[in-house]
From TrEMBL:
The protein, known as: Two-component system, OmpR family, response regulator CpxR
Keywords for this protein: Cytoplasm, DNA-binding, Phosphoprotein, Transcription, Transcription regulation, Two-component regulatory system
Residue stretches making up the Response regulatory domain: 3-116
Subcellular location(s) per record: Cytoplasm
GO MF: phosphorelay response regulator activity; transcription cis-regulatory region binding
UniProt GO cellular component terms: cytosol; protein-DNA complex
Any GO BP annotation: regulation of DNA-templated transcription
Domain OmpR/PhoB-type: 130-228
Amino acid sequence: MNRILMIDDDVALTELVKDYLQLDGFEFDASHDGPAGLERAKSQQHDLLLLDVMLPGMDGFSLLQQLRKTSNCPVLMLTARGDEIDRIVGLELGADDYLAKPFNPRELVARIKAIFRRIELVQQNKERQVTTITVHDLQLDSASHQLTVQQQLVQLTATEFQLLDYLMRRMGQVISKEELSKQVLGRSLQLHDRSLDMHLSNIRRKLAQHSAQEYIQTLRGSGFRFVPESDPC
């Protein structure tokens, strides 16, 4: 049974979300301020975090930044409606997805289930596929869920790892944003949804810290592809 921690100072909202998630068989914990939420996230085992941006004591961005130093637990950010800056910053700091407030609890449950389906699919594929992909100084190990570049461990979130794994297994192929959204994020591509762009930007930034090779190309109007050698788009 998957265990979820919600960190949000809106007690009524957390109770509502708790009711919906428990009806679907999830275990549920809640904290209502930043410091207590961070301590609970670090000291207890959870399968997913629901994290509000505006929190007393410590904002959600600072909490996520601290958490990512030691944990790759999937995080779904809860942001103010229409605040694109919040969404972009959350994804840059390592959030796996976001949902704007106010939201339909059923949509939240659907987003959570999509994240868990992605994780389960990765686990199932480990036994059927080659677990290690090596390209020059880059090595992706799906069994240990680790990426190394020049033998240095690179920290990726669960979503970032799954995106890179999907692209590397289709090396040289142009993959559309719609396909990536459906196959990796578990949902159809939405208008003005920049989450894929931000996740891929994070991957590029992390790779660039260890290698000058540009592995991921953006082909405007077409999608993305992973290339083993630098190649003009």
